[in-house]
Design a protein that fits this description.
By secondary structure, this protein is α/β, with parallel strands linked by helices. The protein is built from 17 helices and 18 strands. It has a domain of 126 residues: GMP Synthetase, Chain A, domain 3 (2-Layer Sandwich), CATH 3.30.300.
Length: 506
């Protein structure tokens, strides 16, 4: 196997050098938009919005913005995507073979997003670019001789009445792996097809000693539970006792920092954390440089990006897009500023607001961090709490109390007097009487808008602590248990009350 590691690493080095001469960002994005419009100009969407005429324009991007409105999911689905099950050539040529059921965190029901063959190819292309970026890291050859464990959702896809196959995007990707992936992909398609989460993890834990895992990919919360299950099953002190070559974790789906301490506790040697922005809407960005969690935007892989400032120019006080927001291109954004991401893609998404807020960390190359969801913006009484600010306060609270708090949920609810308070639920093994007071002070010191709200309409905060076991039981009861599931950090009042009812059960 050693010769394979040498050959793979050498191949990555060569590919990285060939890939190094990339287009300037604006030119790359204009090229992507032109290719997307050209491919879709004869679809119903393309004809309705005049793609043929847009392509003749001297200012392609401005014409595109003028002729095509920004869509959220409900608008895109109602007007266009709902027709793609019955008719061809709606928003993309032909009919998609798959629909991704979003495992996202907002909305009352799952989103159904079309997945085209070109889209699957684009995600593989971004994955290849990410692998080539490993050239920048000082990984030993042993990494390239080992196997990759991907903790996906179930690859056992449903088939609907029209013949489409449906599932979460990670399960769709696994089901489309070519046969030669079996050489290094674990747990393998047979285990990945097990629908029941606990049974799938038990099967992984059972076979774990047979594998030589060098890298793991998945959502931190579920990967951590899986690793803890393996350690418990085989009575290990740490995960490296069974997988000594484990060196990389490709994280995604949620911010990693609240899990870092728990990951370090089950590893004998440090592992490299790579961040990925892999959503149902696309493989949008990935870590390409060591010593940073910033992610390189995939500018040349079938996506065209636009950016709406996440301030009064683009959104209202609830984080919703304004009717006529300011829209910027890749050449107009600024380092350190937050933007709502707008995406056009080869899945037939056009000026589609994903619901994510990103911040640029650099422009050459364009690298971003996800700072939250537009719906995770808690501002019912003017507190203006972003997900990033809440994450920071929770990390500081955990550090002050020498504990870990991986997950949390918060909601603005009315108390018995009819006044608004912030109700927090923290997932931790430590409960403290002063959590509420400490958290309140941390948020006040970090956010002047929160401090003002606390002196006026926001009358207090309440904190309840639940164990990891209670949390996973709650997810199971609400059908939110699985390798790609993300729980909303900001809950509506009704959802929070159902969680509080669950907590209060004897």
């Amino acid at each position: 196997m050693a010769i394979i590691g040498k050959l793979v690493k050498a191949g990555i080095d060569i590919s990285a050098k060939l890939q190094s001469s990339e287009d300037e960002p604006l030119h790359a994005q204009e090229t992507q938009l032109r290719e997307l419009l050209t491919q879709a100009k004869n679809t119903a969407f393309g004809k309705y919005h005049g793609f043929e005429e847009i392509l003749k324009s001297e200012d392609l991007i401005s014409s595109y913005r003028k002729e095509v409105p920004i869509f959220n999911y409900e608008q895109m689905h109602a007007k266009w995507w709902s027709r793609q099950e019955r008719f061809e050539d709606i928003t993309w040529p032909g009919k998609p073979d798959f629909f991704a059921r979003s495992s996202g965190t907002t909305g009352k029901s799952s989103k159904r997003i079309p997945i085209t063959n070109e889209f699957i190819a684009s995600m593989r292309s971004v994955g290849t670019s990410m692998i080539n970026s490993l050239h920048e890291f000082d990984f030993p050859e042993s990494l390239f001789e080992s196997e990759v464990l991907m903790l996906s959702s179930s690859a056992n896809l449903d088939k609907n009445e029209q013949g489409f196959r449906e599932g979460e995007i990670s399960g769709i990707n696994v089901s489309n792996f070519p046969g030669w992936y079996d050489m290094f992909y674990r747990p393998g398609k047979e285990i990945a097809a097990i629908s029941d989460w606990d049974k799938r993890v038990d099967a992984i834990a059972e076979q774990a000693p047979e594998w030589n895992i060098g890298a793991i990919a998945g959502i931190p919360s579920w990967v951590l539970l899986m690793l803890q299950r393996i350690i418990e099953r085989h009575q290990l002190n740490n995960i490296h006792e069974i997988w000594p070559n484990l060196q990389v974790f490709a994280s995604g789906g949620v911010a990693f920092e609240t899990y870092r301490e728990d990951f370090e506790a089950i590893c004998m040697t440090p592992i490299t954390i790579l961040d990925t922005y892999l959503a149902s809407e696309g493989f949008i960005a990935y870590s390409s440089k060591p010593n940073t969690m910033a992610m390189k935007l995939a500018l040349s892989h079938g996506y065209f990006f636009e950016f709406v400032p996440f301030d009064e120019r683009g959104v209202n006080e609830f984080g919703d897009l304004r009717n006529d927001p300011l829209v910027l291109g890749i050449d107009e954004v600024e380092v350190g500023k937050e933007y709502v991401l707008i995406l056009s893609s080869c899945a037939g998404a056009w000026r589609y607001a994903i619901g994510d807020v990103i911040r640029f960390e650099s422009l050459n190359p364009p690298q971003i961090k996800i700072t939250g969801r537009t719906k995770f913006f808690l501002n019912v009484v003017g507190s203006q709490l972003s997900e990033e600010k809440m994450d920071k306060a929770i990390l500081e609270l955990a550090e002050q109390n020498q504990t870990t708090i991986n997950e949390y949920m918060v909601s603005a609810i009315k108390n018995e007097k009819g006044d608004y308070i912030h109700q927090w639920v923290l997932v931790s093994e430590l409960e403290s009487d002063d959590f509420a007071e400490k958290l309140d002070e941390l948020l006040k010191s970090a956010n002047k808008n929160y401090a003002v709200a606390r002196s006026k309409a926001l009358k207090g905060i309440s904190v309840k602590v639940i164990s990891k076991e209670q949390y996973t039981t709650f997810l199971g009861e609400t059908n939110k248990k699985g390798g790609q599931t993300k729980t909303p950090k900001v809950m509506k009042e009704e959802k929070m009350k159902s969680l509080l009812d669950f907590i209060s059960r004897p």
